[in-house]
């Protein structure tokens, strides 16, 4: 009798252990989280039902120790815990920021503070927070050139723009960094180097919450809307949840309320916005699988490849599309080609005798059966071209993963993005096939 109860006890323990692994492994016993919680408590943060945990699919996040109902408060973080430009001005950097002309941007002020505090190490008042920040990021600005070249063309272009932005920010801030020399024993050139700025920029770009501050004379005119929120920034994104987040003037705390339910011991998610995977990768350095907002973008080069250069009206058609903003944001989604993509293709497919109807095309009118059919045929061709291109890139990625051990994490990210693209394109191909049968 006892024996069997021991076995079922073991079974139950094993099942419980497995379940806890599926849900997430509690990390609140780790020293960095113990120190962070104590630091937050000293600043007025009341411990609630959230525990740091490691999840098998999302990595680090927060789990709840009680079931959450709609309109429950997830977290309330006192103003004292938030890192804002106000924090920078009240630090030893403040007088240097206020003196500098032309004024620095709120973004540079925050970057400078993060770099200086990280450099201060044990002496930093923000050390418990800095210790739990990621050491590296996977935003496009941090990706190796070989990896960036595997991104879809529209995202590749934005990744290059992001790199330029950070580089220009670094170059334009060098003189300001030099002015801080009296605060440092080492040369400011070694403290505020490019990789330090890249890390600080990514920290702010991926982790800040939106919080409007009044315009200060000592900053440039860029909007001052950033706040870093320790502990709260461990909450991961899901496109399938809804939350309400804002700074509460009465309680002087930043609060997040849930509009979704969450079971006990499950990961608590918030939503960063209805972003597709390209935007998520660009801004936050991750992608989510089965993202309902995801799209595959069609570049204007790909679009125009299927139309004869001999078409006398070709240039006029391209001008019309450009003037009416129909050469950007042309996509395939889970529900097939977007209305914008079909409209652009319909206009390009207009026959010489139909060209005068271009305004009606932009309004969504049917011009002729021939135009409709040609549009569907070309849309299907573009879809298949993008499918082949995506499969080719996936093959390249799997070869690189074998040869370049150091790029595995970055390659896995691009692979996840491309696999999701492939699923969307396959779904679109099916939809187009059905439409073709119908017409």
Q: How would you sum up this structure, described in words?
A:
Belongs to the class V-like SAM-binding methyltransferase superfamily. SETD4 family. InterPro entries: Rubisco_LSMT_subst-bd (IPR015353), Rubisco_LSMT_subst-bd_sf (IPR036464), SET_dom (IPR001214), SET_dom_sf (IPR046341), SET_MeTrfase (IPR016852), SETD3_SETD6_MTase (IPR050600), SETD4_SET (IPR044429). This is SET domain-containing protein 4. Its main location: cytoplasm. The protein has 17 helices and 13 strands. By secondary structure, it is mainly alpha-helical. Among the domains are: 83-228, set domain protein methyltransferase, domain 1; 295-438, Alpha-Beta Complex (set domain protein methyltransferase, domain 2). The strands form 5 sheets. It has a 3-stranded antiparallel β-sheet with strand order 1-2-3. A 3-stranded antiparallel β-sheet has the order 4-9-8, with no helix packed on it. Strands 11-12-13 form a 3-stranded antiparallel β-sheet.
Please provide the count of β strands. 13
* CATH domain fold name of the domain at 83-228: set domain protein methyltransferase, domain 1
Name the structural class.
Answer: mainly alpha
The largest beta-sheet arranges its strands as: 1-2-3
- Gyration radius, to the nearest Å? 26 Å
Q: Can you tell me the CATH class of the domain at 83-228?
A: Alpha Beta
Cα-to-Cα separation, first versus last residue: 71 Å
Q: Note the beta-strand portion.
A: 5-15%
Low-confidence stretches: 1-5
What sequence of helices (H) and strands (E) makes up the elements? HEHEEEHHHHHHHHEEEEEEHEHHEEHHHH
Largest sheet: 3 strands, antiparallel
How many helix segments? 17
The helicity comes to 40-55%
Mean pLDDT: 92
Using the alpha-carbon principal axes, give the shape.
globular
Could you name the CATH homologous superfamily of the domain at 83-228?
set domain protein methyltransferase, domain 1
> What CATH architecture of the domain at 83-228 do you see?
Alpha-Beta Complex
